[in-house]
């Protein structure tokens, strides 16, 4: 049976067709010039055009399946480069220095294009395609872990329990986001997991083991078998829940990674965009560098892929230009270029980029490379921007997010709320139960917020027991309901203190960014509202009231806008 052609295959084939048409037209324009060059007359501009054409073909032909054309163009590009560098422009007009053999090879290029066999769009290794926005589904294996499965349900995970090995269970449900298994079954589970991943065209689910043997040998054996985590019996369920949340966050992070691609070759860029989008990346493409700084500020990519050769611009200088802004000093910039010369590559890297990807690159290599670079970039950014205790944004980064969101609100006008949260009577918690217990309370509030808020919201630990949250596309009335729910939920949690269990509460002040002439004013207004809530008895939410309007009018105006 013929393999099914997907919409993606069709689009890739269309791009290949466009590439072939454009190249055919450009090579046809070259033909009459070759005759002049044979007669020893050559204009320097024509030579530059020839060089640019060969450079483009060297970098992109392989991606569209014209491998021979790409290799030949790459060799000819080097030869023409030598001519350009060694001959005085004035000489070119009268005494053309291009060897007859090179001219003959140039005249054969269109035949290489025609002769190229119809190329099936490059096969994508679907194993590389990441989980896409699935809810965390835990598959807990075998009867011995039934109680653990139930405990995990109380943490809000969607748990499926299978009494035996999944290969012996006809109803066993897949896909699972994460699998939890007794260590003794790991080998069989990993084999089943990999086979499922292949048939479902997905990356294998991470496997967490529950073991009893804490020896070096036992741990080493589990690592060799492919375990992604190990927890000893009796399992500390909160620790396990935290690891599950981390794995889930990593899966979502992969999916949400943002890639900015700047290359003036339209078909090639579109090809890369399709391939990376299909692999779960959020890709923005630019063909002209002029709007680069505005796009960086708006899109905020995790990495930038930058073509080196974009006449009249140079990618190397653009990388330097990006680095002029302190905000982008640590943004990973990766050159995409057909430049093979290692010395030139190293020189280019010294100007401000981090990596060099040499074109042509296969789809699989592109996905793998971008995925690794995005992951590394996110890990680094996290280290720099996150608060160590809670994992939320630290003070300077939540302020940076606020400035950025305020600018977006000014431009786009969407309703955006800001909240300040402060734990109530927290000094007493510390004094009575110690700082360690106080830290547990702070972490618990951070977890409640992470669970309750959207991934598009910005969560930061502003100070010791104070949090700032920015909610784009959220009106004041919606935020008020949301934070009332957070306050209620948080007040129900039990903490273990020095003299038994206790509860903690939090107060919230809210304001809407749209109503203020600057982000600092909005922050101060939310702080005023927080102060009022503290005065009014804590454990609740107060919205900032515009001096001109009463509370109802404030919310009513919010609803009708
Ligand atoms: N455990 C812990 N305590 C912290 C941390 N950062 C700040 N704190 C404590 O948080 C307490 C804040 O107390 P106050 O500002 O007096 O306010 P409060 O007792 O919460 O009272 P109200 O805000 O009026 O409800 C102080 O005791 C700080 O030492 C931290 O990282 N961990």
Helical residue percent band = 40-55%
Shape: globular
As a whole number of angstroms, the C-alpha radius of gyration is 30 Å
Neighbour order of strands in the largest sheet: 2-1-3-4-5
- Poorly predicted tracts of residues: 119-134
- Whole-number count of domains: 4
Q: Proportion of β residues?
A: 15-25%
Fill in the CATH topology of the largest domain.
Answer: Alpha-Beta Plaits
Helix-strand category: alpha/beta
CATH homologous superfamily (4th level) name of the largest domain? Reverse transcriptase/Diguanylate cyclase domain
Assigned CATH architecture of the largest domain? 2-Layer Sandwich
Residue-averaged pLDDT: 83
């Amino acid at each position: 049976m013929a393999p099914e052609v997907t919409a993606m295959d069709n689009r890739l084939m269309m791009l290949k067709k466009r590439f072939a048409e454009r190249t055919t037209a450009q090579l046809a324009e070259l033909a009459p010039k070759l005759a002049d060059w044979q007669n020893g007359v050559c204009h320097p501009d024509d030579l530059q055009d020839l060089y640019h054409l060969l450079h483009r073909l060297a970098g992109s032909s392989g991606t569209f399946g014209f491998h021979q054309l790409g290799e030949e163009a790459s060799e000819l590009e080097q030869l023409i480069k030598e001519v350009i560098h060694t001959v005085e422009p004035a000489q070119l007009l009268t005494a053309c220095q291009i060897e007859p053999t090179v001219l003959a090879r140039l005249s054969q290029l269109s035949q290489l294009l025609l002769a190229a066999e119809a190329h099936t769009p490059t096969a994508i290794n679907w194993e590389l395609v990441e989980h896409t926005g699935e809810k965390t589904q835990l598959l807990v294996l075998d009867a011995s872990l039934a109680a653990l499965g139930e405990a995990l349900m109380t943490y809000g995970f969607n748990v499926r329990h299978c009494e035996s090995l999944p290969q012996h269970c006809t109803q066993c449900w897949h896909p699972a986001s994460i699998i939890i298994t007794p260590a003794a079954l790991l080998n069989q589970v990993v084999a089943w997991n990999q086979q499922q991943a292949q048939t479902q065209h997905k990356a294998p689910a991470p496997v967490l083991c529950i073991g009893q043997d804490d020896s070096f040998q036992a741990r080493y054996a589990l690592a060799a078998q492919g375990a992604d985590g190990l927890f000893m019996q009796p399992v500390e369920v909160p620790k396990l829940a935290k690891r599950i949340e981390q794995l889930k966050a990593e899966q979502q992070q992969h999916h949400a990674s943002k890639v900015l691609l700047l290359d003036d070759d339209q078909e090639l860029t579109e090809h890369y965009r399709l391939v990376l989008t299909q692999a779960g990346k959020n890709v923005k493409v630019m063909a002209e560098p002029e709007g680069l700084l505005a796009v960086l500020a708006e899109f905020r990519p995790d990495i930038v892929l930058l073509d080196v050769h974009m006449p009249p611009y140079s990618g190397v200088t653009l990388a330097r230009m990006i680095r002029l802004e302190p905000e982008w000093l640590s943004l990973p910039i990766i050159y995409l270029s057909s430049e093979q010369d290692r010395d030139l590559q190293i020189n280019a890297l010294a100007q401000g980029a981090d990596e060099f990807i040499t074109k042509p690159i296969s789809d699989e290599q592109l996905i793998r490379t971008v995925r690794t670079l995005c992951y590394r970039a996110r890990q680094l950014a996290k280290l720099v921007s996150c608060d160590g205790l809670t994992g939320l944004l630290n003070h300077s980064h939540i302020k940076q997010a606020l400035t950025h969101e305020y600018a977006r609100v000014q431009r786009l006008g969407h309703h955006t709320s800001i909240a300040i949260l402060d734990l109530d009577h927290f000094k007493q918690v510390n004094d009575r139960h110690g700082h360690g217990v106080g830290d547990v309370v702070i972490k618990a509030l951070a977890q409640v917020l992470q669970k309750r808020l959207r991934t598009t919201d910005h969560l930061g630990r502003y100070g010791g027991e104070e949090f700032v949250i920015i909610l784009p596309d959220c009106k004041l009335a919606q935020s008020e309901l949301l934070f009332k729910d957070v306050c209620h939920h948080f007040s129900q949690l039990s903490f273990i203190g020095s003299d038994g269990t206790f509860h903690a509460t939090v107060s919230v002040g809210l304001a809407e960014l749209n109503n203020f002439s600057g982000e600092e004013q909005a922050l101060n207004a939310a702080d005023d509202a927080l102060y009022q809530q503290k005065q009014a008895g804590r454990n609740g939410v107060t919205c900032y009231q515009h001096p001109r309007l009463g509370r109802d009018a404030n919310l009513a105006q919010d609803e009708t806008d």
